[in-house]
Amino acid sequence: MAVQPQYAVAEADSAGEAIFIFPDVPSGQLWIGTVTIPNAPATTNGTIHVGDLPVGPLFGPGVYGPYVAGPTKRLSLQVAGLAPDTQYLAVWHADDQGEKYATWPGTVTTTVQGTVVIPTPVDVAIVSPIPVPVDGTVDVGNFPASQTVDGTVTTEPTLAGTVQSGQATMTGSIVNLANHAAVQGVVLSTPKTNAHSIEVGGPLVGTTTGLVLEPGEISPLLPVSNSDALSAIGTSADVLSFLVT
Q1: Which CATH class is domain 164-244?
Q2: How far apart are CA 87 and CA 245, in angstroms?
Q3: Using the 8-state DSSP alphabet, how is residue 211 labeled?
Q4: Alpha helix (H) ranges present in the chain?
Q5: Which residues are registered as beta bridge partners of 113?
Q6: pTM for this structure?
Q7: Quick one: which of 74, 124, 137, 211 is 20 to 30 A from 53 by CA?
Q8: For the segment 80-130, what is each residue's pLDDT rounded down to a tens digit?
């Protein structure tokens, strides 16, 4: 696949701490990419983990990496300094190209010079340079970045896209989500303080026909082009939160 953003949603506790856990990498694949919490305050600080191993720090809404994760080593973030009781979306721009995975963001194009020694009957060595191309071009949209041949990545901390967030309060009848255009889709979640489950679906969603979100649950990324394509029905005063990317 090309660049395929992966998302992790978490709600900071009363101390401003949260743990973001990204989806599992499929068996037989390696994913590599940079990670960021785009709406994090400048006070944010934390540690990036691959499996149980801490691999680097994270501060504010900066972009860090790239980091590689596989099926047995999941990528996660352990973060402090967030606004208390606030929900955040972390983004990992993962890229899988099998054994020739490319680095996001940026384009990797360089030539490595090697030598081959060819013996002759008179025992004279002929040295010939061999150009070895390194594969990997990744389209990163509007995210400006550059990469040098020694592997150093420099970026500007601006995401290729924005994140819209909001809430819908249940009434006991069908409630349509607000109108926000989406590029990747919509992620839904319910706070732990809800008293009942909420059903999510299209315009005619019913109490037994939608995707059920229990209190404290998060939906997968729903690939719709606008958040108003989704509706919900639930018990009056319960809340449904959404993130549009």
Answers
A1: mainly beta
A2: 15
A3: E
A4: none
A5: 131
A6: 0.43
A7: 137
A8: 999 999 999 999 887 655 444 434 333 333 333 444 444 444 443 434 444
Domains of the chain by residue range: 4-102+139-155, 164-244
Are 155 and 142 contacting, i.e. CB atoms less than 8 angstroms apart?
no
How far apart (Å, rounded) are the C-alpha atoms in residues 54 and 201?
Answer: 39
CATH 1.10.10 holds for 4-102+139-155: no
Rounded to 5°, the CA angle 26-95-166 comes to: 90
At residue 46, does pLDDT exceed 90? yes
d(CA 239, CA 170): 6
Beta carbons within 10 angstroms of residue 204's beta carbon: 10
Instruction: Look at residue 100 in the predicted model and tell me its pLDDT.
Output: 44
* Cβ-contact 44, 58 below 8 angstroms: yes
- Beta strands at 198-201 and 231-234: parallel, antiparallel or unpaired: antiparallel
- Which residue is listed with tokens 């909001």? 166
- Given the structure tokens 């785009």, which residue do they identify? 38
